[in-house]
Amino acid sequence: MDRVIMESQSNDESWVTENSENTCTHTTSTPYFIVPEERLRRKLQFHFMNPIEKWKAKRRFPYKFMVQLVKIFLVTLQLSLYSYSRYHYVNYTFDNRVTFSHLFLKGWDATREINTYPPTAGPLAIYVKDDFYSTIEFAVEGYANLSEAIGSYSYTNEDNSRPDMVFCLYSYKEGDIFGFNESYVFNSEIVETCKNLSQSGYSNFKANKFFEKNEINFSALVRAELKFSLKTVNFKSAGRISPPNCYQFDIVILFDNEDHDGQLVVTLDAEPTRLKCKGDVEYVIGNEISSILRSLLNYFVIFICFASLLLCARALWRAIQLRQITENFFISTFNKPLSSNDRGKFVNWWYLMIIVNDVLIIVGSSIQQQIESDEFSSDQWNVCSVFLGSGNLLVWFGVLRYLGFFKTYNVVILTLQKAAPQVARFLICAILIYAGFLFCGWLVLGPYHLKFKSLSTTSECLFALINGDDMFATFSVLSTKSSLLWWFSRIYLYTFISLYIYIILSLFISVIMDAYETIKQYYEEGFPKSDLQIFIGETNLDDLSSGLYRTGSTESLGGLVKDFFCCFKSTKNYTSIPSPENS
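The chain above was modelled as a monomer; its predicted structure follows.
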């Protein structure tokens, strides 16, 4: 770095005068390949300033900073309103599914509506043929007597007449079992057969007589489905926030016999589809204001996120150009390129995260607007919530960037940044050990333990054990039919818990604490400086308000417009910078 040559003050003053007019002509006529060394240093100093220092240096309105503040407020407001609507939607559809289970499933009781661990009841299943026929008859009778239900349900036909109930059988083409002599006839091709139950009428419907001509072969039966639809209107969400919603529920009662274990599991699913209401016209007019305001909020969020995306993308592009200039300067002046660490300093990962959350929020807001305007034939609540929720998560993560400008809060960010490589290497080793326990537990304990019945539940169980959750239940739920497996499970669980809680977690914490102590030492003794930081030097706080940095740069919003519309030729000014000897 001994070759660094400081330019005279007269050259700096001439450069400031030369660039005082912020026009496209001047930007093009003052190429950056004649920029002296001090000018590059000053540009790098300004690039690595925080928004407050940049405002003091150039006295220009911090557009990106204010856009992020406005975006946080608007996105959070949008998410709150959307969460309110989605909460009522999810609860409404779930409660209707429970109602349909009581109306159309024989043997359904309230204990099956609550998820408990361990489960208080087994699956709703059929074991004899008469129960199969009686379950169909119960559903048909409930459908025929829909007016007796407390809920305001209607048939899907416009005149409220009963549409057809369709019963579909999915069976193997051939599937006969002769257990007495251990033989069978089997063809794995699945054949679908659908019947209209309305052919015999809904009054006094007898399923065994209906299937008398075409008797069901339960040995070949894979599954059976009873399908029908209902309409209703939801008044609960009506109010100043939103008008009543109209829904059609496509109900499917599934008889699952894929395992062929003598147990025909019965489940009910109701898929909701929101319809356009044709209700009280005066009431809808009274809610047009709130609907318009919500639409304006969605459009404004899309606009502000799009502006944020453009500003951050432009900042990243200018940083890449500045990195190329600096790289060429270091090669021509100091005969060595920038280190990988110095090159990485030009990539602002916060801007990348902001661009990602902008894209997520723009997509989520577009879907939300279409949902609220009833442009979707089917509901996309879950898809929209994933986009909006993930975008909002990253928006609030972005607040850490501004807290990082303060020394007290920046310790956390620097500690995570310092520990990231060591943590990544540590996690690779820990995950390999975890994978071994995962597959072993699933294979050995899966058939005998509720928590190990699948790979996902096994992983969830092991992760919960690492955090000390539900340990006794995990030990006690295991079946004691096999003494070998009982002893194996004890050795397996004790080894895993001891290894991860007492050794691996302790090592993980020590890695973080070591990085934290290193950062504390840096704050006391000074951070190590790279070649780039040595070249940039320290920023004099007195220079920030002296006007030294107030040049004809295009960092303002006007500069952004010029970049897009009239100054494309100026991009060549950011491609290279020869040494001062050649300027």
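The chain has a mean pLDDT of 78.
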